[in-house]
Each structure stands twice: as structure tokens, then as C-alpha cells.
Amino acid sequence: MTGPAAAGHRRLRRGPVAELRAFLHAALVAPVTRDHAQTDAAFRRRRVVAAVALLCGSAVLAWALRIPPGDPAFSWATFLLAGIWSAGALASGPLHLGRAHTRAGGPDALPIVQSLALGGLLVVVFALGAVVVAQVPALSAQVNAVLDHARVGSLGLIAAIVAVNGIAEELYFRGALYAAIGRRYAVTITTAVYALTTAGTGNPMLVLAAALLGLLTGLQRRVTGGVLGPILTHVIWSSSMLFLLPPILETLA
Length: 253
What we know:
Blueprint: H1 3-12, H2 16-28, H3 40-64, H4 73-92, H5 113-133, H6 137-151, H7 155-181, H8 186-197, H9 204-224, H10 228-252
Helix pairs in contact: 3-4, 3-7, 4-7, 5-10, 6-10, 7-8, 7-10, 8-9, 9-10
């Protein structure tokens, strides 16, 4: 048996571990073919715009996460932050949705199913981590400090804020900033910068979460060449954590 039929037969014989390994390789390791080259002038302009947006966004983020829970200023600050990230991304130059490998080995497709699966895996990892964190008062206090905003006021509004900011952050960090760095160290640098922007909050658990999320979405960006995959994964993860973390921490505390 040769050709596509043989490839399909081999796929059917894979065990769950082999399936997971193949999925992660296609989603996070092997880039799709694309040509998103920029002119030197466009590259320099993107760097300037990205730098200005980063300075403004980092300052607003540090301010927003230090606003006491229940203060109406929190909502305004976070929507302002989303506006800064989005404006900086769109003003920096062209952004791309990206493409993903298909299981059948045919033409590349939009990274939708792949990103939904990655988002689900990330939720499981963080939920298991929350079980451990709940047993350590010092760590659970850091996580609860972030979740306190979700416990006061409208949960629907907080969910909207989480989703909007997730989209805006990916447009900027895995869109504009990633393209402004260059290909060789883009994943490493965008992950580090993304984590460091949260350092001003003084919350180490938030910094750790940003580093893990930034690494995963950075690898997605490198593979797909666009922002759609990182956006879907980010929104699934952040929205799920909003609803899952509070009951996990409260039940196991």
C-alpha cells in the first residue's frame, strides 16, 4: 500500500501518545510555508510603532491591575489597554491570520480546530496547576488577588473584558511585536516581553502564567505565521480560567 491510502492507514494505527506527539509537532514545531517579507522601511516603521505601544500599554496594564476590585475605573482602564494594544498592532503594518497543517496532509487551513485543541490542553494544565496552588496559601493568595476583580461586579462584563483584552494582546504581541523583532529570536523575545509587562503588578503568579501562555502562543505564531491561532488559544484559556479557577481554589483551600 502506497501514497495517501498508506498514510491514512498509518494514522489509524497510532496510539494516543503518538497522536498527541504528532499533533503537538504539527501545531507547535513545523512551520507552514508562507512569505510575509517586509521591506526595510516597513520593518523600521513597525519597530517604532511597536515600541511606543509597548511603553504605553505596559504603563496602563500596571495601573489597571493595581486598581482595587469593585472600582469602576478598572473596566475603563482595561478597555483603554485593549485599545492601545489593538491600535499599536493595526498601525504597525499588515497582520496575517495564518495557516495550519491539516491532518489529511492536504492544503493548509485556517488554524481553528488546532487552536481550540491547544486551548483545551492549556486549560487542563492550568486547572491541574490550580489544584497544587490551592494547597500553598502564599501562591493561592497571589492568584486570588487577580481573581478578586471577577468576584465583584458583573461577571458578564469581566468576561467581555477578558475576551477583548485577549484578542488585543495577541494582535500586538504575536502580531506587531513578533513581526518587529525578526524571525530568529521572535518567540523568545516576545515571550520575555509579554511576561515582563506583567511584572509591574508585583504578582509572580501572573508573570508565570504570562510566560507560559506567551511561549505557547509564540510557538503557534511561528508555525502558522499569523494571529488567529494565538487569539483563539488565548481567549479559550483566559475565559475558562475566569470560571474554573475560583471554584477550584475555594473548594480546595
